[in-house]
Design a protein that fits this description.
alpha/beta; 4-stranded mixed β-sheet; about 475 residues
Amino acid sequence: MLGWELPPFFAGGVGVVTQNLTAALANRGVELVFIMPKGPEGATSPHMRLLIGDVESERPMSAPPAPPLTEDQVVEELEPGKVVVRREPGGAILETWEVPSLLGPYAGPAEYEARWKEFAGDLRLGVEAARKRQRRVPGAPGPTGTAPPPKKKAGPLYGPNLLEEIDRFANRVVDLVQAEGIHFDLIHAHDWTTFPAGLRLREATGKPLAIHVHITEYDKTGGKGADPRVWAVEHAGLHGADKVIAVSQRVKRQCVERYFADPGRIEVVYNAAEGAKRKPRRIARRTPTVLFLGRLTLQKGPDYFVRAAARVLEVRPDVTFVIAGTGDMLPKLTELVAELGIGDRVVFAGFVGRDKIYDLYEHADVFVVPSVSEPFGIVPLEAMQSGVPVILSRQTGASEILRHVLKVDFWDVEAMAERILEAVSYPRLRAEISRRAENEVKRLTWADVAHKTEKLYRRMLDQPPPPR
């Protein structure tokens, strides 16, 4: 399995989905090898034992001093192989290989180039520091004082742009699999940055490839277009894979209409909710609180939330609106709040980690998801688990399967404001929605998602379907 993030090192819902899916598959006895650009070193998991093995050997104390490092050697030193083995009591295994990288989710080529410039400057400072450490690297004298045979230079690990980095990751994946002699049955690649690696591995091994589409470039821009370079990578993955897993019918339509993919090779497997983490709702509030939680980007629609807040405050000036998250729209949103004259009723909470989001739910009376284009959306499920009524955009994949939520179109600010007013003004309505939503979300389990995914695996391998 190929991906780039696992909790606690992640930037969005893809990491949460990947973590829960791998855990549920492991519980079914599926053995996984997970390869990623940057591994979750030091992470722990409540459902799997996590072991981290650093295969980089240290120079023995008795060895002669190593010569000063060159810049090329320092780059090579930044390539440690990391093996993370998670073992269930029943024997299921998940190995995670760390491939150092500047890749990050939701970053486009322009943002990546900025990261590269920063890294290149830090690298030269690192050379001097590394020379002082005098650590042994490939090519330095061994314990006997003789240097090993010259090794072909690996070249810079980090390319000057995102697409080059994706290509390097693809090559590195193939090298790791071949060098370690890893035996596997099929390849499962998550999101566009790993599609080239999946295709390269498929070509090298002849194993079938399933790609998992969690989001498309069109979703990130709110349907306003796509970077042609990203589109080309997504298109190649969709046309080169044996199977495509889409997280909603909405995503499947995008794949067919925007990328001309074969609908017969696309299967929809909806996401699920994590295990219940609801705290007792013991917060006594005199005034209602309405919550937005997510990245402050065009895709998530936070500006529609702010405009709806202004309409609500005309009727209920006692309501508090909390915006939790960071993103490129933050300056615009603060200006909009000031322009609308609602700064005293809007709280910008900043980034909130996974360990704190349930504190937010505990304080919220209503949770609003005004997304312009959302492939699925995990946060409404979390809010429902926490007993918080949800107002959900119809332009989300989750709206396809959720019944006990209040649905609106993201652009209909008036309807959004009306639903908020209804939820904060009628406690009995709020309680009934919460009760039904909690029961509904209990039926959306990762065990079911894993069962459907394993069935797809077996069809790809022409094997009998798995037991429930």
